[in-house]
Amino acid sequence: MSTFLKLLVASLATFVMAQAQAGIVKVGSGAFIAGSGLITFSEFILGTVNPTYLPATYGGGAGSPIVTFDGFFTGQSLSATPATDCPGGASTGCVVGTPSGPALSLATAAPDANIVNDGANPTSPVLSGTPTFNGPIGILFSADQVGVGLDGGYFNGIGGTSITAYARDGSLLGSVINDALGIEFLGLVTDDGSAKIAGLLFSLVGAEPAGFGIDNVRFGTAGQVVVPNGVPEPATLALLGLGLAGLAFSRRRQLN
User: Fold this and answer.
1) CB 85, CB 92: distance < 8 Å
2) Pairwise CA distance, residues 12 & 243, whole Å
């Protein structure tokens, strides 16, 4: 095989592998369009613990997921060394560990999530971890999603809180952190538009002086979430592969 063909094959393989490994892209609330799911926590009474949302509860249509909440996922725990894992953050909101497979699940022994009032949030009620406004929150979807987002806050520190997405087998997909004060929408989508997000963890990674909660959880699959431009669709990748293969064949014929 000529040097040209070797370079061509290597480049194509690298490109395809990079695209096959879906990453995470941070998005705003506008990425969630008509038909996407929305949970506001006004659907249940104050004090509800670890709420479970059937599609009918939040107005979801056919194929919408069941959404459940708790403190974190099976295989995870609160950090024993928060000063190292979440510098400056409360130990009660610092989660470590990788969710265990083969199927992502919420940990029954995790601190509870509760629906509470929040005077700092204009769309209260909200969901808080335990202790109030200082505990983590795990979100589990019965069907994989393309994108998930939520209103987090009220933030008094930048870079102290994150949302982390996990696949159905518990593997890490990616995370984003808050970069604003007050109430900030934290959203993420898979960069190739594939439905791979099975769960989301809202927790501390640093200092958050005044505590934190979530509201207005958004989620959706293909057609309900806008994926940022510039990411080739699978069909585009296939055409690119055929085009490069054709180029290689043409080059080989010229060399023969």
Assistant:
1) no
2) 11
What the block records as the tokens of 7 is 């370079």
In this structure, are residues 233 and 193 in contact, taking their beta carbons and an 8 Å threshold?
yes
Listed residue (177, 136, 176) closest to 160, CA to CA: 177
| 144-184 pLDDT per residue, tens | 999 999 999 999 999 999 999 999 999 999 999 999 999 99
Q: Give residue 80's identity as a one-letter amino acid code.
A: A
Return d(Cα 226, Cα 224) in angstroms, integer: 7
The two tokens of residue 106 are 């919420």
- CB neighbours of 235 closer than 8 A, spacing ≥ 6? none
Smallest CA-to-CA distance from 134 within 93, 80, 76 is with 93
Q: What secondary structure letter does DSSP report for 48?
A: -
Note whether 204 and 170 are within 8 A (CB): no
Question: What are 44-59's pLDDT values in tens digits?
Answer: 999 999 999 999 999 9
Every domain of the chain and the residues it spans: 22-229
Q: Is residue 86 a contact partner of residue 95, using CB atoms and an 8 Å limit?
A: no
Model confidence pLDDT, tens digit, residues 99-113: 998 999 999 999 999
Task: Please give the CATH number for the structural domain made up of 22-229.
Answer: 2.60.120
Q: Which amino acid is at 6?
A: K
